[in-house]
Amino acid sequence: MNHVVLLGDSIFDNARYVPGGPSVIEHVRRCLPGGWRAALLARDGAGIAELPRQLDQIPADATHLIVSVGGNDALDHSGLLLHEPAGSFAEVLARLADIREQFRRDYRAVLERVLGLGKPTAVCTVYDAIPGLDPVEATGLCLFNDVILREAFRAGLPVIDLRLVCTDAADYSRASPIEPSVVGGGKIARAISRLVTGYDFPAEGSRVFS
């Protein structure tokens, strides 16, 4: 029996933001073929530092791992992007380079731990069509998505590019615009289902799903 496990943050753990509607994990369970199961280990508010704790909870019968993390790490740096003074453009770039390098180290370390489990794995980018997202913050997300894509391609992993999945305002929750709505959650779940049922791990190498 196939068993899909969702790891990461509130992109997957969005139940509190869709009151009365199906959450991402519920959508995934509905989208998967008969006989498949899905489990949620992702937690609202989790950043890259919390992934090792989730990895320790992965059930032995898990067959596919889907990782969506990075949005909260980007959010942690939004104050610097929007409010910190800088003496020159070069200083700004230097700070951004430091942020990117730290996330790269952390993301690579976690991804190596995930791959060490020997289970088919896919990762997600961080979406950027959030209603009201400041253009500076949207630009800052590019740093994190660049890391995610480079590390995924380096490891030969498939990617669900959430920037291509959640493209409309209706894809985001009214309760909190940075979270998926029922509509957005359904799109994410269908992308997950297409990946795990239609991708040949690991023979196909990196491939982008949307």
Summary of the model, kept short:
The chain has helices at about 25-30, 50-55, 70-75, 80-85, 90-115, 135-155, 160-165, 180-200; strands at about 5-10, 35-40, 65-70, 120-125, 160, 210. The chain is of the alpha/beta class.
Structure description:
45% of the residues lie in helices and 11% in strands. The protein has 210 residues and is of the alpha/beta class. The chain has a six-stranded parallel β-sheet with strand order 2-1-3-4-5-6, sandwiched between helices. Strand 1, helix 1 (24-31) and strand 2 form a beta-alpha-beta unit. Helix 5 packs parallel to helix 6. It is globular, with a radius of gyration of 17 Å. The two termini are 25 Å apart. The mean pLDDT is 92.
What does the average pLDDT come to? Answer: 92
Total DSSP helices? 8
Q: Specify the structural class.
A: alpha/beta
Strand order of the largest sheet: 2-1-3-4-5-6
Query: In whole angstroms, how far apart are the ends?
Result: 25 Å
Q: What overall geometry do the principal axes of the alpha carbons give? A: globular
Order of helices and strands: EHEHEHHHEHEHHE
User: What fraction of residues sit in β-strands?
Assistant: 5-15%
Low-confidence stretches: none
Tell me the number of strands: 6
Q: How many whole angstroms does the radius of gyration measure?
A: 17 Å
Task: Bin the helical content.
Answer: 40-55%
Q: How would you characterize the largest beta sheet?
A: 6 strands, parallel
